[in-house]
Amino acid sequence: MKKSLGAVAVAAAVALSLSACSGSSSEEAAKGEISYWLWDANQLPAYQQCAEDFTKANPDITVKITQRGWDDYWSTLTNGFVGGTAPDVFTNHLGRYGELAENKQLLPIDDAVEKDNVDLAGYNEGLADLWVGQDGKRYGLPKDWDTIGLFYNKAMLAGAGITEDQMKDLTWNPQDGGSYEKVIAHLTVDKSGKRGDEPGFDKNNVEVYGLGLNGGGDSSGQTEWSYLTNTTGWSHTDKNPWGTQYNYDDPKFQASMDWFAGLADKGYMPKLETTVGAAMADTFAAGKSAINAHGSWMIGQYTGYKGIEVGIAPTPVGPEGERASMFNGLADSIWAGTEKKDAAIKWVEYLASAGCQDVVASKAVVFPALKTSSDKAAEAFKAKGVDVTAFTEHVKNKTTFLYPITDNTAKVKGIMEPAMDAVVSGKAPASSLTQANEQVNALFK
Amino acid sequence: MTTLAKHSRSASPASASSPKPQGSHRRFGDLKIALLFIAPAMIGFIVFYVVPTIRGLYLSFTEYSILGEPEWIGLDNYTAIAKDPLFWNSLAVTGQYVFINIIVQTALALGLALLMHKVAKSTLIRGALLLPWMMSNVIAALLWFWMLDYQIGVVNQFIEWAGLPRVAFFGSEEWAIPTQALINTWRHMGYTALLIFAGMQAIPGHLYEVAKLDGASPFQTFRKITIPLLRPVLVLVLVVTVIGSFQVFDTVSVTTGGGPVNATRVIQYYIYQRAFTESDFGYGSAIAVILFLILALVAFIQMKFLKGNESDLD
After folding, report:
1. Which of A82, A272, A273 to mutate to test the interface with B (most CBs of B within 10 A)?
2. Closest to A278 (Cβ–Cβ): which among B151, B255, B273?
3. What count of Cα atoms within 13 Å lies in the side-chain half-sphere of residue A133?
4. How confident is the model at residue B188 (pLDDT cuts 50, 70, 90)?
5. ipTM summary value
């Protein structure tokens, strides 16, 4: 047994060296089965379709798609990098790729992008540049993007006498909350039917909250508070991408956070402790909140609830006269350890092309990265009866800011999560974030 | 677990019929056969316990992000841990968890064991007590997570009907640890009761008859006969449950994930967070080594001072 195995190994080695000489190894890397991972189950059917179309055009290559929930996704991926079983191609996140690139787990694709003339200008502005690492190399091609909007319960609005046009012109500031707070207060109703802005409102027995709460928001506050804090001219880091200094100690930011935490204290927003468990969208569906600030990737879920009419308004205009929304984008990256390099590049380029992104657009689940496909997605949403201008407007009017891309993102989150929880739950004032900020910035020294 | 099973078995009446020790000339005669039988367990023990423990010990002196190579940094991790408020917090939180879990669980298990011993002789009822233990930890945690949910949980619905304010069982800092300690109490007490029950069966019946003749009350019998004779089993149960309790992880992981703020950031969860979430395997390993030392010390103290290796029956 041992002997025969050895013989096989020798034969294989000879074959390998021969093939290396004859240069046929690149052919080996350009066909066969490649593996592809993603985390969003809602998008699986669209990509399954892309994989079939891709194999039709490239009969040598098949794509095996694996979907894993967000929580398992990253730990399984890390194990795969170490154990050598990582997928050839996988969906990558801005909050993670810096670390992966630094640890040489990602394949730079500059040469291929140049050789195959991928039109980087075809993507929505800024999306392609996000995937150029600190070393100046490109580590992915953009697949989709998301922004933040306000989902509201139409019946509750009508009951409160608030028009949908009013929702489109909301203003906000950290001092008195502007018309945004007025609307939230008016939509809040206590158990005896008194509204949040009426005398005798009982903040300890609230039936419907004006604004839903997802959580403390940890380091990014993507859907929780960044659409407010970043209208004041504040930004998470000194520069983005690849900032080396976080700004949670800025008084402007802390004033915004104090206002935000104050909503719960006033009874207009659920207390943080009551949000552990059931998802914010589900409590909205159960009629416990009138407005939920959430990401565009949730459109399908919010509009899918039976018996609830949902509208979507843009986030409020801030003190500097502009709206703001975090702009996050995903991309497909190639694992540095892949044995099917050429096939993987082909697949990534296909995923980033109109061929696949139009398929994704037609399913009306997310906004693809290509401008033309984004428009098609908006139309597909429209055909379903959903007006998504609240999300696309941000991109059109350039009122977006990027997800903070830095090193040490996992550690920053580890520090900021409890710190933000303490502030949002009212256990600590926002000034306590100064100390957390010192801890965060010490990571970059 | 193996030691426990072995112990309760040797404490059972069946041990009276165990074969007498063989003569010394045959002491090594069965060695080969014995090794053969030990080998499967031994290999597993070495591969899955000894090697990882030694590697963990080594890693605790390094800086290691799993994707690079470990880099030797001596005692740096340990000095950083000594100054890490989250580490001390995790010790306090874990301590609170163990305290609630062990006290309630042991008391209830003792009561259940007494009931099994004296009242509930039906196998069906005895078996039913074990049901929660047969559920996986994650399922049990998720089940209670939903039942105790603030907004849509059935328990809070009952609380509201009773005219009381809803309770954020997992969301409030005061409740989060007691809630989880009691969930795991619910899951483990049947099993713990079974172990104690086995110990009770090993107490010779004639002692109770004598006590009855002497006119001892049930409480006196329990205090003067059952408890002292049960001591070795109780100590073992305590050692095993305390160690298990210190290692609480899955319940926290699937429910609160360390929050709210740091209220449930138990030591095992903190190790996981540092190592697997923040890719700081050296630091995580160092905390794991400290936990190992703590557990060894706790087990030693329990065995030493509760005289767990001596029986009053001899």
Report:
1. A273
2. B151
3. 23
4. very high
5. 0.76
